[in-house]
Specification:
By secondary structure, the protein is an alpha/beta fold. It has 10 helices and 8 strands. Strand 2, helix 2 and strand 3 form a beta-alpha-beta unit.
Length: about 250
Amino acid sequence: MPKPRPLIAGNWKMNGLSADGWALADEIVRQAGEGTGPELLVCPPFTLIGLIAEALANSPVGLGGQDCHGDDAGAHTGDISAPMLADLGCRYVIVGHSERRTDHGDSSARVRAKAAAAQRAGLAAIVCVGETWAEREAGRTAEIVGGQVAESIPPGSTAANLVVAYEPVWAIGSGRTATVEQIAEVHALIRRQLGGQVGPGSEAVRILYGGSVKPANAREILAIANVDGALVGGASLKSADFLAIAAASPPG
Ligand code: PGA
């Protein structure tokens, strides 16, 4: 089974006003080339999605949201639905990021509802999972990550509408990347579990690593078995760093 085409996704988080968001997207488009390497994706804050859709028009760089509601519409003040994201040209949405799980109490059941809503709207859900440092120290990584995968991924998911991102909470924004062995072990566990949950074709579901990915460590991380790309936070805010990470992907 050949490796799936890698996905390099930039998670801008709560960063960017119109001028700098436009400039960043424009630089990425100019430097991205023909789109023959890994698939590139940017996930700006909701306020910039319409603008960035224009900046990315006719380019191979895709657009995604950072979260969505589990319902398609309704009385949910301040929330954004998956059909709204699809309407603006998004192809992906991140759900279950640890910052949403922590700041907004997103349980795995709620993450599953969000992922299902994304898939109903024709988007691919990037479902994030990952253990805290205390959970790792207690030897509970497999239990926590396995549990999140079991509970956060909707039934009926396929390689076309599901991406999984393993992001150890302690590695996010900390400059502390997981080791090659730690990444390889958890990605293998997720791959095995997807075999049971997704069934035939599960080898094509991309499993991204996220947590302090930068140009200096990208080549080593992206070469690990069952690592099919990266979810990049801080380093995605500089076009040169984001594209250097993409360039470090093994050739397909
Ligand atoms: P980081 O964030 O690259 O800044 O560690 C990754 C993420 O939270 O998706």
